[in-house]
Amino acid sequence: MTNVLVFHYDGYGNEVVILWKWIVFYSMAFILGILIAMFQWPFWIAIAVLIFASFIMIGDVLFTLYGTTNINRVEKFIIKKKKEPIYAFIYSQGFGKKEDQIIAIDAILKKYKQQHIVHYYRCIQEYLKDNLELALDEANKIGKEPLMGYSKALVLAKMGKENEALSNTPSKPWMQEAIRAAIAISKNDAAAFEKHANNAIHSTRGIQRLSIIYSFNQMRK
Fold first, then answer.
1. How many whole angstroms separate alpha carbon 80 and alpha carbon 75?
2. Is 30 exposed, middle or buried (0-12, 13-18, 19+ CB in 10 A)?
3. Residue 195: which of 180, 206, 175 has the closest Cα?
4. Would residue 2 be called left, alpha or beta, if left means φ above 0 and alpha means ψ between -120 and 50 degrees?
5. In whole angstroms, what is the distance from residue 200 CA to residue 212 CA?
6. Which DSSP state fits 84?
7. Which of 107, 153, 177, 221 could form a disulfide bond with 85, CB atoms 3.0-4.6 angstroms apart?
8. How far apart are CA 124 and CA 101, in angstroms?
9. CA torsion, points 134, 12, 178, 145, in degrees to nearest 10?
10. Rounded (5°) CA angle 108-7-165
11. String of b and e for 2-16 (b: at least 16 CB within 10 Å)?
12. Count of Cβ atoms closer than 10 Å to residue 137 Cβ
């Protein structure tokens, strides 16, 4: 089954953090308002508690997205957020078929209009459809590193162009290993695939780790 080793751009988490910030803020403000009225606390105590609680909650979300190696924790987060386009795509990587991933990308393209994001996800779509020349064309239009170099390397790896793939791969360790795993799959080298796949997984955290685990699992089928 065709699968793609997706790079999840760091900017996506900002939307979730902003949403959580306001949910926490208003919820805590409501609760603290009741407590102040009941116990006649000084107003500065309420503000201090509100700020502290907000930082704790937002920090927890950021740690889940980018810091943890606990995949169960990240997966639970993705399942809860699967109605949001980005997370729906990741969910489809783990629990859906190739067709589900393509449909999920359509939803992403409707929501996100930044050109580098549009071309990146179009690249993934064409890759999943095995339209590799179109995928490479979209990768060349991304114009933002390391997204562009990684996307080009991934497509070139599937084309069997090993040297070009490696020369385009950004220096991030997990990207280097992921591309080498993709090259190994194209050469039917199971031992090399497992080696580089495991190295890539151990070099990632949070949502990126979960996504490439899903992708590698599909590649093993």
1. 9
2. exposed
3. 180
4. beta
5. 8
6. S
7. 107
8. 9
9. 70
10. 125
11. ebbbbbbbeebbeeb
12. 15
3-state SS record for 147-170: HHHHHHHHHHHHHCCHHHHHHHCC
State the Cα–Cα distance between residues 113 and 202, nearest whole angstrom. 32
Instruction: Identify which of 154, 158, 189 has the alpha carbon closest to the alpha carbon of residue 174.
Output: 154
Can you tell me which residue has the tokens 């067709």? Answer: 99
Taken as a whole, the chain contains a residue count of 221
Model's pTM, two decimal places?
0.82
The one-digit pLDDT tens for each residue of the chain (221 residues) are 455 666 554 444 445 554 555 565 566 666 666 666 676 767 666 667 666 766 777 778 888 888 999 999 999 999 998 999 999 999 999 999 999 999 999 999 999 999 999 999 999 999 999 999 999 999 999 999 999 999 999 999 999 999 999 999 999 999 999 999 999 999 999 999 999 999 999 999 999 999 999 999 988 87
C-alpha to C-alpha distance for 134 and 63, rounded to whole angstroms: 36
Distance, in Å, from the CA atom of 99 to the CA atom of 198, rounded to the nearest integer, reads: 26
Query: Tokens 């503000």 label which residue?
Result: 47
Q: Token match 């071309």: residue?
A: 119
User: What is the torsional sign of CA 190, 195, 200, 206?
Assistant: positive
